[in-house]
Structures are given as C-alpha cells and as structure tokens.
C-alpha cells in the first residue's frame, strides 16, 4: 500500500468534485462546522450520533452501518473521501471504522478541513441530495480493533502506543487541554506504553509528515519495534485512529489495532496496572 | 474535577468552533480564553493552537465566528499560536493558573 492509495490532496479533490463514484464525507464532532460550510457535494456523518450505539458503549452494528451509508447515498463500490476538523481526527476514526466494516475504497483528504480552509478554498452550505442506496456492510474486521483484555495482555509484550499529550500520558491531565478536565477515574498510562502524541505525525497545516520522518519518529525516536504487533490508544479512540492510519496505512505495518475503549475505559477498570509520570 | 464547560468532555475529544465555552466561572480549571482580530474584525476561519514550553503542540481549536477560543490547560506558561488563511501566523506567550480565566486579545 502506498500513500497515494490512502491519501488525496486538496488539489485532487478540487478537480474531482462531482465525479460519479466519488463521495466526499465530512466527519466532525462539531456538526455545526458542516452546517456553517463544507466542501461542495460533501455529506455529513456525525461520529457520535451516527457511529455509536445510542445505549451501549459500542459501535452501531453491521446492519446499522449499512443503513447509515444507504441513507447517505453511498454504494459499496463508491470511493469515499473522508475529511474533517481537528487535523482529521474524526475523519481518521471514520476511515478506520469504514475499514472495520469492510469498505476498502476509502481515502483521507490530507490536511482535512483545516488545510482546505487555510488555503481559502470554496466552502458551501448547500446540502447535496443523493439517492438512497442498498449498502451491505461486512462483518467487523476484528484484526483492526483491540479490546481491554488485548491491552492488558500486551503489556511488556507488544508495542503499546499512547498517542495522547505528554500531560495526559503522565497523569497530570485527564483530557486534552481544549476540554474541561473530566474523564476516567484515574490518570496515567498503560505500563510499557510509549508516548508518541498523535500531533507529532502531522504538520502544522494538518497534513501528514513524510514516510521517512514518520518512520524515524516511531522507530528511532520512540523505540517502537516494527517487528512486533502494535496497539494504539488515546482517550476515546479517535486520536489513536489517526496514529493507526499512520502506522497501518502509511507505513504499512501489518498488525496494528486501535483500542477504541482507550483511556476512558482503561483508566476506570478495577485492578489493572497503571503507570504514572513521563515516558521512560 | 468540576465541569466548567457547557459540553461534557465525555462527548469526545474534538472541540466546537471557539472551543468549549466557560460557564459559571473557571471552577478548578486553568482556562485560557480570548479572541483574535485583524484590524478590529474577528478572524474566522482560523485556528488557535496551544504549545507547551518546549514548543510542542498540545491542543487546537477552530476560532469561533467572534474570533474566540477557549483552552483548559494545566497551570504554567504556554505559547498561543494563531493560523489563518493568507499565511497568517502569530504567537503570544500566555500563563495559565488554576481557578482563573486568563484572557487574551490577539491582533494579527
């Protein structure tokens, strides 16, 4: 897999707006962002309302995902281009989620909404009309998803990558600094996890760093063993989807899982080991 | 810890435009909030980034329609960086304290 299989740049998107078989999807937590302006022709997916089960803490099931994509007018053979705010956090999360349910023809707009806005490219408020489809989702590909027992079993055995900010990793903060501080019962990180904040993989404009820079960052600097399987986590699993994208899709690491329970689950579990302080 | 914002953080890691607004005072949070203007007019779209004392990225919010932003930081010194279309890039050092809203007005 190469970078061009999984990423498109803003220029490519501008040239292919409206092409049949290509669907732009904006994924934001802040759904008002889409309503205030989005790339022409893009449909909206709300990472929470549309992708999370409303009762249990889990994803919508296979049928639910099929229903969502059908309603959005997305077909199984469409190329889906995802983009969003926060340097593509939620778009990367959706990318991982689309892969989880077997939609393979999906790419990220490099730099996401931020790069598009900073380049002063056109945004519209008009919501496109797309005909309803009959989308068939696949069974979840569990090779992409880690659960809490996988994480405990990985301590000292596999690569664990904690992609939160250093203050969250150390236990000084429980949530990112742009949010009120409340979350898991305890602060800290999974023992033996390496702290590589997701943001180190991105440049200031939200685009991904080069493959060479990324390999140096995770390998030489953070000390990940590329010969081992890897589990990435953050607080709720979307920043770590960004890192999953880097390791699995850009660098081609074969066995990388995203732990979507992440710190809000792990930091509230009874009896699991927790380490405090800065990285070793 | 108390909740100073109107939106519980359990809703996610993403920030609405302008950040999560402070309601009922800072509580026990160290809040950095303010507004970015250019020639007296709010800057939007644009982005506010918070960098730590090593210059490392910590958080980012899109500026609100009023050019506003809000961060919930740890106490200490931070660099606020603003990005906006037209290669606008401006930095300002700010200090955050628990129980206080540090207000910043930044003209670019």
Can you walk me through this structure?
The complex is a heterodimer of chains A (280) and B (108). Chain A has helices spanning 3-6, 10-16, 31-36, 62-71, 85-100, 112-118, 148-154, 166-170, 211-221, 239-250, 262-266, and strands at 7-8, 22-28, 43-46, 79-83, 106-109, 145-146, 159-162, 194-195, 230-233, 256-259. In chain A, helix 5 packs antiparallel against helix 6 (112-118) and helix 5 (85-100) packs across helix 10. Chain A has 280 residues and is α/β, with parallel strands linked by helices. In chain A, helix 5 (85-100) links the parallel strand 4 (79-83) and strand 5. Chain A contains 11 helices and 10 strands. In chain A, strands 1-5-4-2-3 form a 5-stranded parallel sheet. A 5-stranded parallel sheet of chain A has the order 6-10-9-7-8. Chain B is mostly beta strands. Chain B is 0% helix and 50% strand. Chain B is built from no helices and 8 strands. Chain B has strands spanning 30-38, 41-42, 47-51, 57-62, 68-73, 76-84, 88-96, 100-107. In chain B, strands 1, 2, 5 and 8 form a 4-stranded mixed sheet that branches. Chain B starts with 29 loop residues before the first strand and ends with a strand. The model of chain B is unreliable at 1-12 (pLDDT under 50). Chains A and B meet through helix 3, helix 5 and helix 6 of A and strand 3, strand 4 and strand 5 of B.
What are the SSEs and their pairings?
The complex is a heterodimer of chains A (280) and B (108).
Chain A: H1 3-6, E1 7-8, H2 10-16, E2 22-28, H3 31-36, E3 43-46, H4 62-71, E4 79-83, H5 85-100, E5 106-109, H6 112-118, E6 145-146, H7 148-154, E7 159-162, H8 166-170, E8 194-195, H9 211-221, E9 230-233, H10 239-250, E10 256-259, H11 262-266
Parallel strand pairs in A: 1-5, 2-3, 2-4, 4-5, 6-10, 7-8, 7-9, 9-10
Chain B: E1 30-38, E2 41-42, E3 47-51, E4 57-62, E5 68-73, E6 76-84, E7 88-96, E8 100-107
